[in-house]
Amino acid sequence: MTSLHDIPAIAYSADYKALAQKYRPIFDQIAAGALQREKERILPFEPIQWLKQAGFGAVRIPVEQGGDGASIPQLFQLLIELSKADSNVTQALRGHFAFVEDRLNAQRDADQSHWFKRFVAGEIVGNAWTEIGNVKIGDVITKVTKQGEQWIVNGKKYYTTGSIFADWFDLFAQIEETGESVIAATRTQQQGVTIDDDWDGFGQRTTGSGTAVLINAEVEEVIPFDSRFKYQTAFYQLFHLSTLTGIAQAAVAEFTQQVRQRTRVFSHGNGDRVDQDVQVLQVIGKASAQAYAAEAITIQAAQASQRAFQAHFSQDEEAEKQINILAEIESAQGQVVIADLVLDLTSKLFNVLGASAASRDKALDRFWRNARTVSSHNPLIYKEKSIGDWEVNGTEPIYAWQIGGGSKENG
């Protein structure tokens, strides 16, 4: 059995200070245009291109293969910083980093250098899993078939977050002949593929989470879904935790700046300067503490997924199973707490300003809208139930789940 101390270099940590110094100038550039993109609903093609050119998509790839060699906690620490700059950009990259993580896990059993080279070259991957309409749970309309030696795919996906910016789809489908669930790695830029920016959410509006249609599109690689990395649900959830934390930090920073600049005071306030009003300072102080707690919880939960990644290379299936359970539980616990913290602070921060805080030009509501949208992706009530069922009954959490039509008949 391989010791956890003998894990190959893909599990090693980089120097976070050096990583941050490499990418912070780009994060600053992204932050500078975030408000305009929000107000005018401009998709962040240019910011994502900056990140691609800088090699951000390869931050988890081993140094010896051209990447930065970051650990999972370091990745999500960087993503918190990116989310503070623009939370939409982080969410647009969610599918990419999940696919990268899957290929890092697959490296244990088969060479994945062809994918690593693509990531290092700046190629990124978008998400294409969800189907809407008359699709029951368990059904997958998107089908992969063989035409001679070439796999092709036909189907329609919604919530294809990040795909409009991406070079590849991480595409969930079924092999038509066998019904086997697979990931079809498919190039986005080819005949037969259209991607529309028709996402109509009130928050996270520039994530490129629209509709993709594939008609006889060629598939580069078919990957059995059963081989997907085991802590994927926890990993996907960590993206939301990082995004929420970045939103919280950005909200605290923006409202703090608004307080510093504010000259108008209320006659029944606590002084002739807003920045000296003890109740205003109390609101900012609590929000700052809530944002701090969100970051601490996110990094702690990311440590659990790092242990799951390392356990994958230990060849101890039982140990890996138990560590994956904890990774899933910790990410769920983080979601339950962080969502409430961030939704609370992004609402109550409005107490430090007057009616001018409702100005469309300032768009201060974007923090709550974005946090509310991110918090709605995986219903909190089901996460709370899953945690409770594990605590009371020792029930193993569900790692991969679907959404679709139920069995209830009309009439």
From TrEMBL:
Task: Respond yes or no to whether keyword Oxidoreductase is given for this record.
Answer: yes
Top-level lineage group:
Bacteria
GO BP annotation list: fatty acid beta-oxidation using acyl-CoA dehydrogenase
Natural source organism: Acinetobacter populi
Q: Which family does it belong to?
A: Belongs to the HpaH/HsaA monooxygenase family.
Question: Which residue ranges does the record assign to the Acyl-CoA dehydrogenase/oxidase N-terminal domain?
Answer: 18-123
* Assigned GO CC terms: cytoplasm
Q: Which residue numbers delimit the Acyl-CoA dehydrogenase C-terminal domain?
A: 243-378
Provide this UniProt record's keywords sorted from A to Z: Monooxygenase, Oxidoreductase
* CDD domains referenced in this protein's UniProt entry, alphabetically: DszC
Q: What is this protein called?
A: Monooxygenase
Write one Gene Ontology MF term.
Answer: acyl-CoA dehydrogenase activity
Xref: PANTHER family:
FLAVIN-DEPENDENT MONOOXYGENASE, OXYGENASE SUBUNIT HSAA (PTHR48083:SF19), MEDIUM-CHAIN SPECIFIC ACYL-COA DEHYDROGENASE, MITOCHONDRIAL-RELATED (PTHR48083)
| Entry keyword Oxidoreductase | yes
